[in-house]
Design brief:
about 260 residues, mainly alpha, Endonuclease Iii, domain 2, Endonuclease III, domain 1, 11 helices, about 0% strand, class I DNA-(apurinic or apyrimidinic site) endonuclease activity, metal-binding, Nth, DNA-binding, DNA damage
Length: about 260
């Protein structure tokens, strides 16, 4: 005679609260205070003149370097810096301008489609709303977050490969995927630092905490970092950098922004 199945418990299953960071709260504050002193006015590295050209530039930057995108968009934006001008230019000519960028055929198609949708549904204006932005062709959550942060000043964080790597390596916001890391960063970053946190993290990951060979000796948060293979534990002196043109060595362009 088989044993009867145990009745399901009426009590809710215990949910273990996630530890959002391996760093203590005071260490997180210290980390961002250092970044804020190093880069008081952090800026992105894509060239743009308005919300529309920023949106297009970010769409084009998927699996491409910012330097490569800027070389292509300089001539393109000189003649097409509005949705109307871009649609008038046409997909074929857009392809000619951006053919040095990876996936240029699909990107040219999306640029024309999103431009037309902006004309038809948003009076040619870029909406300051994430749901509206991700409804545009070629625009994902990360692209929307970049535009909302850079142009509209919203405290959004777009987790690219650099931020994902740094967050896990340093122990700031460990996560198995970009969504996990974004959620963790949103939970642990103090409100006063959220506005610029995206730029601080991406620039530190790009110029210091590189993928293949992190430059620990130049790291201003080396003492806070939990990376077991770090080569230096003494924080570098904080030297103020006034713009992205005054960075710390060569950038790490491996696996640039996607989505």
């Amino acid at each position: 005679m088989s044993k009867s199945a145990k009745p399901e418990s009426s009590k809710p299953k215990k949910v273990t609260r996630r530890r959002w960071s391996r760093l203590k709260k005071a260490e997180i504050v210290d980390l961002f205070e250092r970044f804020s002193k190093q880069r008081p006015d952090p800026r992105g590295e894509l060239d743009y003149s308005n919300a529309y050209t920023l949106l297009v530039a970010v769409v084009l930057s998927a699996q491409a370097t910012d330097v490569g995108v800027n070389k292509a968009t300089g001539p393109l934006f000189a003649i097409a810096d509005t949705p109307e001008k871009m649609v008038a230019l046409g997909e074929e000519k857009v392809r000619d301008y951006i053919k040095t960028i990876g996936l240029y055929r699909n990107k040219a198609k999306n640029v024309i489609l999103l431009s037309q949708k902006l004309i038809d549904e948003y009076c040619s204006e870029v909406p300051a709303d994430r749901d509206a932005l991700v409804g545009l062709p070629g625009v994902g959550r990360k692209t929307a977050n970049v535009v909302l942060n850079i142009f509209f000043g919203q405290s959004t964080i777009a987790v690219d490969t650099h931020i994902f790597r740094l967050s896990n390596r340093v122990g700031l916001a460990p996560g198995k995927n970009v969504d996990d890391v974004e959620l963790a960063l949103d939970k642990i970053i103090p409100k006063e630092f959220k506005r610029h946190s995206h730029h601080w993290l991406i620039l530190h990951g790009r110029y210091v905490c590189k993928a293949r060979k992190p430059d620990c000796k130049k790291c201003i948060i080396a003492d806070l970092c939990t990376f077991k293979d770090k080569t230096y534990s003494v924080p570098a002196p904080i030297v103020e950098l006034d713009s992205y043109e005054n960075q710390q060595g060569q950038p790490d362009n491996t696996g640039e922004f996607t989505g």
